[in-house]
Amino acid sequence: MLSSSIISLHLRLFVLLVFSANAVFSATTVKTLPGFDGELPFTLETGYTSVGEIEFFYYFVESENNPAADPLFLYLNGGPGCSGLNGFFYQIGPLKFSVANYTGGLPTLLYEPSAWSKTANIIFLDFPIGAGFSYANTTDAWNTTDIKASAQAHAFLRNWLRDHPDFQTNPVYIGSDSYAGINVPIIALDVIEGNTAGLEPNVNLKGLSLGCPHTDTIVETNAKIPFAHNLALISDEMYESAKQSCNGTYADVNATNTECVESLDAITECIELISPQNILDANCALLSPEAKEVKNRRYLSGNAGNFLLQPHRVGDLYCHNFPYVLSGVWANYKIVQEALGIRQGTIREFHRCNISLAYTVDMNTVVPQHKNLTNTGLQVIVYSGDHDMVMPHNGIEEWISSLDLTVDIAWRPWFIKGQVAGYTTKYTNSGYRLTYATIKGAGHSPQEYKRTECYTMFHRWIHYYPL
């Protein structure tokens, strides 16, 4: 576990975040939403939870099964800077956009039958500060980092539970998509140590769910070339040339190693026009109607998921990114913001993913944090799309292997209705259990490509059934 000095530092930061401002609980029960026909067939609450000088906006969907007993699931999107609406509409939430016949105006909303809220209470959070409708009350509070944002999410969770005492005894799980994989193990350790220190309310943390998680920058970068070779995007000769000249390391290549640079340039020519989100998809132009979203910044290379396709000529070419446009259109309608209970004047414009954050990357690996968590008795699932070149599955498998866990169930296929849905293996360390699963045919993020398969996987895992 963390040293006592680090523990005290984290707890001091937590206390500062929680008590540096008077927390004001503000929530709205949403019965109807513009674009959806009739009353919502689920219970939706939106609101703000204060963390110091930050007002975090959330979307809380009660379980459609048994809210009092089902798990409470805090879900964080990647980017960093993607709104909770990204997960709500495109990944695991109970609504989705009707895309096929969209020609402009207010988008139509449809019910999603494979929502994870069928079996869990879910908090979708606009995280970190600057994402979605979350805002800061001071200029300095807009600035954050991986570590600071994780501490803020920890504080949010305790404050939210304080304001929702009915859910304080529910088992709690923390989930992430993509970049937020960096935050979740840090948050989990903070929660565990906060519980040990007697912070209230207690968080009944039981496990973590990590989808295509950003975990170690070097491992992920080095995994992309073997991934491309395994899927026949580059030849054996190109792969062997790069492997030998670069000594198997493709991150931070020394420019004086001309053989390595030339090998990587040849590989780039072969894969640069392939969609990294899913190598089977059309490689859509990375154009955006919002200039703010095409600014350059230090970010995970190859992550096209934050860019939007211009909404004209919808029927000409299918593009996985097109539906992303609709959340920006929908959420900027005044009637939508009124229905959600948005405080007018707190943000200028809603962006599905705001990549112009005042955000500093200060964690390039959280493998040590995962190693510490293997002594906690948590239940963890890590899952990956097997056609994802943003966070390749082989890189994820490499860092999991480095945890030195015991294989409990060997690699095998898992099934839905008699068909192979992917492959899975399970690891243990005393009471700690880690399930790893691939989703066959899925890209980055798997939930966007295979909703039924991902819901089935989640339902089985969170209720302790084998995949």
Secondary structure: elements and pairs:
Blueprint: H1 4-19, E1 26-30, E2 44-51, E3 54-61, E4 72-76, H2 84-90, E5 95-97, E6 109-111, E7 121-125, E8 135-136, E9 144-145, H3 146-163, E10 172-177, H4 183-196, E11 205-211, H5 217-230, H6 236-245, H7 258-271, H8 322-331, H9 334-340, E12 359-360, H10 367-373, E13 379-385, H11 393-401, E14 406-416, E15 419-429, E16 432-439, H12 446-449, H13 451-462
Parallel strand pairs: 4-7, 4-10, 9-12, 10-11, 11-13, 13-16
Antiparallel strand pairs: 1-2, 2-3, 3-7, 3-8, 5-6, 14-15, 15-16
Could you provide a short overview of the structure?
The protein is of the alpha/beta class and 467 residues long. The chain has helices at residues 4-19, 84-90, 146-163, 183-196, 217-230, 236-245, 258-271, 322-331, 334-340, 367-373, 393-401, 446-449, 451-462; strands at residues 26-30, 44-51, 54-61, 72-76, 95-97, 109-111, 121-125, 135-136, 144-145, 172-177, 205-211, 359-360, 379-385, 406-416, 419-429, 432-439. Strands 1, 2, 3, 4, 7, 8, 10, 11, 13, 14, 15 and 16 form a 12-stranded mixed beta sheet that branches.
